[in-house]
Amino acid sequence: MHKKKLYILFSILYLAGLIWLLLTYNHEKQTNMTVCFSKVLYGIPCPACGTTRAFMLVIGGRIKEAILFNPNIIFIIAFYLFYPIILLYDLIYSKELLIKIYSKAIKTLKYKAVYIPLIIFEVLIWAYNIYRHL
């Protein structure tokens, strides 16, 4: 992927997530709004179902509950904490740290010892979400 496109893509994802959180944030009650295609089309949740609600738990300081609600929140928290720092670092020092991290991640995900446990992890989260009728 072209360097500039990667920065644009990650920035769009970051901002879209923030906008989504701002639109759905309601500290008075939980929202039943969903954008999950799996849930809308097939009536079953995907492995990511519940991450918005888990993020709201994080915002409320209830991190343990958030992780129990959907463990994928760990990846989202890491992205929202570290992406601005990496972006700022790259803008100031022109080191292309994001490119290096992205390339390393892509290379690492090619190993069975990495992608098979990740697939198992996501399947378990998916089963957990189906079991809980998210």
Structural class: mainly alpha
What is the general shape?
globular
**Compute the gyration radius: what is it?**
17 Å
| First-residue to last-residue Cα separation | 35 Å
How many helices? The count is 7
Relative strand content: under 5%
| Largest sheet composition | none
Amount of helix: over 70%
Low-confidence stretches: none
* Secondary-structure element string: HHHHHHH
How many β-strand runs? 0
Q: Please state the average pLDDT score.
A: 86
Question: How would you describe the overall organization of this protein?
Answer:
The model has no long low-confidence stretch (mean pLDDT 86). The protein contains 7 helices and no strands. The longest helix is centred in the first third of the chain and has 22 residues, at 3-24. It has 134 residues and is mostly helical. It has helices spanning 3-24, 37-42, 51-59, 63-69, 73-93, 97-108, 112-131.
